[in-house]
């Protein structure tokens, strides 16, 4: 930081928003590294993969399905859900620990703390996706097409950003540091377990199959499965709509929550 980058007024030293964001981002990332978040988000997809791949592989492959290829998209989505639980917890800590109150007393714009937390959350999301791809590749997952693979990564991270911004707002509003294990865990688990990410919709009872086929996690995993095979399917457009809607709602809620924090 140079003197030229600071705006001086009588009795006030104003720091440009870019430097405020940089300083808060660095603080969040240091805390994340110190607390071992990256190890947790990298290893979580590995545990999830083994829990479902080992018991279901033989039955799925007997039906002619390459289960390593089939399961990986859900693994990537799970990594984003896991990251979002960290986001809600960290945002709640900021408020409960008094950091949000201190920032409110300073000339810091409401969106800067949100953007700074998003920086560390993005690093968590990239690490979770890397963990998913590493374990999937070990068991036989492969991309078929460079362009489609890049879109795959972009879609996963965009979904992660949408989830994170929503849970960040929830954590800021509730100030509940246990938010990830209460409000968030149940709905996320329900969407994962009742999706086509684990088994095809035909494997569910007939009365729930319409929900299984059309719920957002199923649309997203089907789109990612197509991208992994080098195909751009119709589900990709539906998944994009879900992601954009979540991003718009989450961004509005997060900035509003930060602006009205106690």
Automatic annotation (TrEMBL):
Keywords: Antibiotic resistance, ATP-binding, Membrane, Nucleotide-binding, Transmembrane, Transmembrane helix
Pfam families assigned: ABC2_membrane_3 (PF12698)
Location of the ABC-2 type transporter transmembrane domain: 66-255
Taxonomy, superkingdom: Bacteria
Annotated localization: Membrane
Predominant location: membrane
Coiled coil (UniProt feature): none
Membrane topology per record: Multi-pass membrane protein
Protein name per its UniProtKB record: Daunorubicin ABC transporter ATP-binding protein DrrA
Species this chain originates from: Nocardia callitridis
């Amino acid at each position: 930081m140079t003197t030229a980058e600071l705006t001086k007024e009588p009795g006030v030293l104003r720091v440009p928003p870019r430097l405020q964001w940089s300083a808060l981002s660095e603080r969040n990332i240091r805390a994340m590294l110190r607390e071992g978040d990256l190890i947790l988000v990298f290893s979580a997809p590995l545990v999830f993969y083994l829990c479902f791949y080992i018991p279901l592989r033989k039955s799925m492959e007997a039906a002619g399905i390459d289960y390593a290829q089939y399961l990986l998209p859900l693994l990537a989505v799970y990594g984003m859900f896991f990251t979002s639980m960290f986001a809600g917890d960290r945002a709640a800590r900021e408020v409960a620990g008094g950091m949000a109150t201190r920032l409110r007393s300073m000339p810091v714009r409401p969106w800067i703390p949100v953007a700074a937390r998003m920086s560390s959350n993005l690093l968590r999301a990239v690490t979770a996706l890397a963990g998913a791809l590493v374990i999937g590749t070990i068991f036989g997952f492969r991309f078929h097409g460079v362009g489609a693979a890049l879109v795959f990564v972009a879609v996963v991270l965009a979904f992660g950003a949408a989830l994170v911004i929503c849970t960040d707002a929830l954590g800021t509003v509730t100030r509940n540091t246990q938010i990830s294990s209460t409000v968030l865990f149940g709905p996320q688990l329900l969407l994962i377990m009742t999706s086509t990410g684990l088994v095809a919709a035909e494997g569910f009872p007939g009365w729930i199959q319409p929900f299984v086929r059309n719920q957002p996690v199923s649309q997203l995993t089907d789109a990612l499965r197509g991208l992994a095979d080098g195909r751009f399917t119709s589900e990709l457009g539906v998944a994009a709509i879900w992601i954009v809607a979540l991003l718009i709602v989450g961004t509005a809620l997060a900035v509003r929550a930060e602006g009205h924090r106690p």
